Structure formats: structure tokens, C-alpha cells
Amino acid sequence: MTQRLVSVWQPFFLASESTPAAIDAAAELEQLGYHRIWFSAGFDEKLPPRFRELLDGTERIGVASGIATVWHTSPAEVAAFTEDAERDHPGRFLLGLGASHAVLVENDGTDYRKPYSKTVEYLDALDAAGLAPERRVLAALGPRMLELSRDRSAGAHPYFTTAEHTAEARSTIGPDRLLAPEVAVVLEPDPQKARAVARQYTAGYLTLPNYTNNLRRFGFTDDDLAGGGSDRLVDAVIPWGTAEQVAAGLEKHFQAGADEVAIQVLNGGDATSFPAEAFRALAGKLIS
What residue stretches are annotated with the Luciferase-like domain (predicted)? Predict the structure, then answer.
């Protein structure tokens, strides 16, 4: 693919704020030219109604689950939701699926075993329910899951990765599958302040083996993973600086083979307000 699509990954405000406020934010993102809005489906059996509310409340912008977990959602319920959304809003809803993390899945007593096999079983159930592979993508990091995303879905939606991983992912899934990495950013030119904001975000993710194992494959060491991440790790995972500098960091993912980059703006721990000014500034640099 040769597209260069700029999307938004904003899980908290758009998922939890009042419906009118969320729709207003989505409408502005649509007007700014963003391609798609990604946010988490949570841990319920059904996809939350917010996905449909945003589709109904906007005209063009896409909406995607980033992600719905294969341990909690029902394939039949998810397939029905996706088909209904496709009927009423053709081409605008994309189902993002993933195996999540053991510490999160086992909190409710679910036994996190063989996540790859569980994902295959889930995809089999979606096939049986009649959901076409092009309506779904997988949250893939390692080679096996990337290959599965290539063979059983429209493509891959990696999270918490580097541009080097994007290049590897493109090589694995080939030229004809969607590659849409999430990339968190900090709009702050001061290095100390920017990295402090970034580490509020990285600290939690660096406790999850799925992410740390993936980073180790790209040469990061235990020292890099400690204390919220070394400067080297933070700078590789999270573009920061002025809007121009952040745009240059995102450009590395496009150069590495991404079709779509889903931008998550870090607000310094403030998940309750929508970072409209940041998305306006980045749209000015990234969207023509």
C-alpha cells in the first residue's frame, strides 16, 4: 500500500466522556482531516455503544476498536456489531482484535494460556459467523502474530513500538496488508519535561512482557527498560518536541512502511480533557 493516512488513538476522552462531547471532538477531528479514530473496546462481552455513536454522529471519519480482546468479547456479538456498522456506514468501522496481556486478562479469573491459539480460534468463529477478513485487523507485535494478521485479516495494528518494528512488520505482512501502528507523542520542546511526560506513560507498559520482549528483540536491554525507560528507549518509542519535530518522528514510521499512523497525544497524565490544540497543530503539519 502507498497510502499515508493520519489517524487518532485517544482511548479515554472519546470512550468515557458524555456522548455529545465525544461527538463534538470526533466531528472536529473529521473536519481537520484525520482518517480514523481508534480507542479501546474495554473488557465486556459486547463492543461498547460509543463506537456506533461516533459513527452515527459523524459523516466520514472511520472508527476502530484498538483493541477488542479475544478473551472477553463474544465473536458472534462482535461479528453482528461489525456487520450492522458496515451496513449503515460502509467502510467506516474496523474491528481491531488482540490477545491483550496476562496481568489484565487474569484479573477477572480468566486463564491466559496459548494466546496465539486463542486468537486463531476467535478468527475461526468470526469466519463461521460470516465476518469477512477485510473487516478486521490484529494487534500484532511478534512474527507469528504478524503472519497471522497477514493471513487472516486486513493487516496489523501494532502498539508501543518503534519505527524499526514498523519496518519489520511491513516486511512480514507484505505490501498489500494495512499497517497502522499506534504512536504516542508529546508536544513539548523541553527534553526534560517531554521525557517526564513520556515516562508517566511508558512506566506501566514496561511492566508488560508482550512489550518488553518485543523491545528486547530490537536491541533494548534491561537497563533501557528500567525506571520508565532510558532516554534512548523513550526517544525511540515516543516522538516529542515541537509539532514539526513530532511530525518528523511520525514520518519515520511512514518511511518504514506504515500506511496509517494512529497518534496518541500524551497529556501529562490528564486523560479527562481532549487535547484539541495538539491535534490541530499536528494536522497542520501532517495532513494536506
Answer: 19-128
